[in-house]
Structures are given as structure tokens and as C-alpha cells.
Design brief:
Two copies of one chain form a homodimer. The first copy, chain A, is an alpha+beta fold and about 290 residues long. Chain A has two domains: about 5-125, 2-Layer Sandwich (D-amino Acid Aminotransferase, Chain A, domain 1), CATH 3.30.470; about 130-285, D-amino Acid Aminotransferase, Chain A, domain 2. Chain A is built from nine helices and 14 strands. Chain A has helices spanning about 35-40, 60-70, 80-90, 130-135, 150, 165-175, 220-230, 245-250, 275-285, and strands spanning about 5-10, 20-25, 45-50, 55, 100-105, 115-125, 135-140, 180-185, 200-205, 205-210, 235-240, 250-255, 260-265, 270. In chain A, strands 7, 8, 9, 10, 11, 12, 13 and 14 form an eight-stranded mixed β-sheet that branches. A six-stranded antiparallel β-sheet of chain A has the order 2-1-6-5-3-4. The interface between A and B is large, with 57 and 57 residues.
Chain lengths: ~290, ~290
Amino acid sequence: MPETVLVVLPSPTVADAPADPVRADPAVPLLRVDDLGVSRGDGIFETVNAVGGHPQALGAHLARFARSAAMLDLPTPAAEVWRRAVHEAVAAHPPVPELLVKLVMTRGVEGSGRCSGWVLAFPNADATRVRTEGVAVLTLARGYPADVMTTAPWLLQGAKTLSYALNMAALRHARTKGADDAIFVSSEGEVLEAPTSSVVAQFGDRLVTPPCDLGILEGTCQGRVFAWARGRGLATAVERLTVDDLHRAGSLWLCSSGRLATPVRELDGVPRTWDAALHTEVLAHLLTVHE
Amino acid sequence: MPETVLVVLPSPTVADAPADPVRADPAVPLLRVDDLGVSRGDGIFETVNAVGGHPQALGAHLARFARSAAMLDLPTPAAEVWRRAVHEAVAAHPPVPELLVKLVMTRGVEGSGRCSGWVLAFPNADATRVRTEGVAVLTLARGYPADVMTTAPWLLQGAKTLSYALNMAALRHARTKGADDAIFVSSEGEVLEAPTSSVVAQFGDRLVTPPCDLGILEGTCQGRVFAWARGRGLATAVERLTVDDLHRAGSLWLCSSGRLATPVRELDGVPRTWDAALHTEVLAHLLTVHE
């Protein structure tokens, strides 16, 4: 695992006695097979993009990490320890333009009552091509109704858990159909999110993203896009969208920390265009240190 | 981790060059943090009960393991190597009445193209109390319609994956409501399965379980119960059931390899009884070596 930095948190939660994060060799196994993160996908994660050595929107990521923990009845992550571990991992890594920093906390070894936590930093694979050329996207049923988060919280919609097998399967399915990515849709036909990113649609001088109460993640990159938009005089709104709305939109982006704002160049086989000047501007903003 | 045996499979799939399973110390970490089984819950598992040293229904478990692998586009598990690993783990363990043997295969370290595989054997926690006293069960929405497996295969319903965070959350939710376990119900109100077991309902001299095309697992213990039932002159049927049907049933069981046939003593707060003689008989059968 070249150019990868691993930092382990002996005390990842506020319930633990404080202990400093420690460097470890990422090529050496860290986890027992009876860690519930392994055996049950029972844990949470965040992926932060460190641009020029600065972890972008780390506060927003840590806030979402804590929300995910609460939804899984996990102890609250010790935010300051995680923050330190992130900065240690970034500082220990050879300088690269973009460094992905993954934070993971699991329920730990079964019966131990102690969570496992670590931070892994590795160079962001060059996403320049998809960021500039865009991606072909297939809409796929998520199978759930729009009210699933409130009516069935045990389904953990809206939590960023390690149980991502279906997100990966949805991406594989999209690829077998010649697409690059997917957008999930509720059983009523409402636009939700992509398997690893958020949806932002442009309608004239308004940017719109679907509401989190549909059981989707609050996108950190989407939040940065909205902050930028408001700063340059665009309106932003959190509103329900249908697939037809997406077809009517001007620019349409998938937003994530790793790929930033990636334009959708084809939706369900229908080619689409985007505002190139606006896109260049938002990308430049996302690659600039702000928070 | 007292009385636990770990056997690692260097070559878990038919795509690998053959290599013998090897014993390893279960207290020593086995997995890197970038194993996709950890980072994405991207893998499959089975839990076999070895009674008096005999792994029950191992053929049925291995067949389901292979079906789960296919649904996740994983390479086919090398059945004979897994069989050997299971027998090695059982043979290496001090004799106990019931030994749970967990088979796990993950997509492996990201980018390696090699699956990770292991078998972990540990004594079955004494399930005598729940098997004889029964469990209180809450029905919970699974959020999906009954046709989800055929209309949206990327949701992986019917595959036994490591992405079990929601199954664990459903059990925690049931416990906060004073119940011991849950039964998932489709959005149309059809009975599906429990988070870690299958549902079998008795109507006179017929036993009924819901069909797998609802996107549920084919229960290995349920299969053994049905085989026993037919052998003693009961009829068996795979039919759709509603929660009302469950209330009308005679005995109602949750069936799994670990807890075998556990009677439901309360459903959604309504106390229920079961045929004690029949229950004693089915438990005795399940604890007898047959296959």
C-alpha cells in the first residue's frame, strides 16, 4: 500500500479514557475477525478531501460522523481526537494535491464494549477526467418510500454506515448497463442521492438538492456548493425533485468529497449539457481552502 | 477469545490456485483496514451449528454461500476448501454440545483482486432458555415491496451479506420496545423474515414459510424443519403470509442455525401459545445428526 498513512485511535469515543492517536503500518492487519465492523458492517465512516494539506469541511464531516453514531446507538466519537488524528495523517503523508482521508469507527470486538477507530489517508485517484468530462448516470430504485427515515428508523437511512454492499452493487449494476454511476429514486419517484454522492440540480439561477428527511445523507460537498452559490448571488433550495425535474434541469452534478462536483453528461441514456463556466467556477471554489 | 478456533483460507475461491486452510490465532488481527469486507461490508457469510462435532446441513449452507457470492458478483467459493476448513475448525475445538462455525468471504483488500476468507468456531451460547421459553417479537417494516428482489436486484435482498447494520439496528429497536426479536414485513404487509432467522408458522397439520422470491433468505434451519415435518406426516407449504395469518397460527417459530426453532411467545404484545409436544419433537430432531 504505497503512500498510505494509517493512524489508529485507541480512544475513539467520548466514553473512553483519553489516549493519543498512534501511527501504524497500513499493510499490517489491524482488525480481528470478530470486530463487529467486519462481521456485521456495524460502524460508520466519513471521507474527507485534504486539498494542499487542508482537510476540507472537517467540521461538517465530524458533525455528520456524530449524527451517524447516534443513529446506530454508538458512543459519541471524541471529535477533538478525530480531528487530531486527521491532521496527523495529513501531516505524515507526502504532499499531494488531494489526499483522501477516511475516518472509520466500528462497534469493536464483539463483547468488548470498546469501539475501534482509525484514519486512513491515501492520494485521491485523479478525478480530473470525470470532473471535466462528466459521468453517465442511471436512475435506480432504492425500494423505499420517501418517509422511510421517520417511519422506520431501524433501517438506518441517513446514517453513513459501513454496510455499503448495496451501494457497491448499485454501482456495478449501473456499469453493466454502460453507465458510470447511479441516482437512487424512492418508490414514489422522488430523487434521493447517488450511492456515494449527493445530487444538485441547477434551474436558472437556483440550485436545488433533495431534503435529508427523505432518508439521505446531508452532503458535505453539496453544502460547500450551496455556500459558494449563495456567495455569488445564486439562490439555493432544499426541495423534492422527480426524475423529470432532473431532465429539465440545466447543470446537474453529483457532489462528493472525492470527486467534488461531477457533471452528469447523460441521464438514463439521454445526453445532457451543463454550464461550463459555472462548472469551472464551482470546481475552483471546491479546490480552494475555505474552512 | 477463549475456546475459539480460527482457520484462514488463503485460496477461498475457485479462481485461486489451491492452497490448504491454515490455523491462526483469533486474538491476532487478520484484516487490513482496506479490506472491502471492512470498508464496505462487501462480503458474505454463513453460520453453521456443529452438534456433537457434526456441522449440520453444511451442504445447504455452502449452496447458499455460493448463491450469495453470485448475487454480489464475487468469485464462486471453493466449496471443498470451505468444507475442509469447517471440519478442521470443528476438529480443532474442544468438544462442546453445540459449536457455531462462521464462514466469511470478503471481496478482499481493495485493488488486490483476491478475496479474504476464514472460518471461526466458538461455543454456541446456551440457547436453551429461548428455545424452551420462547421470545417476544415485534413486527417491523422492512420498507421494501414484495417484488424487490426481481425489480431491484442491486439491493441484494436474498443475499447473506456482511452489511448487517440494519439487522442489528432492528434488533436493538425491538429490545427498546421490550421485545426480544423482530419479524420484518413488506410494504404490502407480507411477512418476510426475522433479522437473523426465518419464520415458520403452523396451521393445524401444515407448516408454512414465506417464499424466497420476496427477497428473503432460504433458511437452512427452516429447510431441516420442513424435512422433519414431512417425515412425520405433516404437510409443508411455501406461501405468502400476513401478520394476521401469524396471529391465527398455532405454533410460530423463528428458525436459525444457532437458536434452532425458537417459539414466539408474544407477537406485537399479544401472548401466544405453542404445541409443546410438537416443539419438543422438532428441537430433538434439529439436535440430531442427519446430513
